[in-house]
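[agent] plan:
  1. take the single chain provided in the ticket
  2. run structure prediction with default settings
  3. attach structure tokens to the ticket
  4. add a short note for the reviewer (M.T.)
[agent] executing step 1
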Amino acid sequence: MSQYIKLAEIIYRNVEQNKDFRGDIINDLNMLMIELRAEIKKTRLKLLVNCIDFNELMVNPLCANELKLDLSIVPKSSNKEEFILWLATFIQKITVDEDQPKTPKGKKIKVPLMSLEPLDIAAPPQISSDKELERYQAAQIAD
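[agent] step 2 finished; step 3 output follows
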């Protein structure tokens, strides 16, 4: 996350120095994207999409595109710290690190289940008939 924060700080500083923040959120986001494209060339990051229609995202934030971005939570650019944190998260969502191994789409990563301490949950008994199942369920409800 630190690489995204550093990149967000650089982009914010460049846009702020050029006085490109106008208060119009669509214009500000477009200026940020222009600056991001310039700065991203110096990093290992790569944009996931070529174009983002910010007008469409403002009207329909959870539209059926591959990026799930909610622009209704964009802070004002005058609130520097909050805006940089939001921008870092935004950059993280729309970029991918070229050095990171890729997980093929549709493939799930199997994570082993581990516990450092044993659980205090008793395993249910072996149930072989409907009567035993009813008794077990009744006992669970009574507890």
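[agent] step 4 note for reviewer: The beta strands are 45-47, 95-97.
[agent] ticket updated
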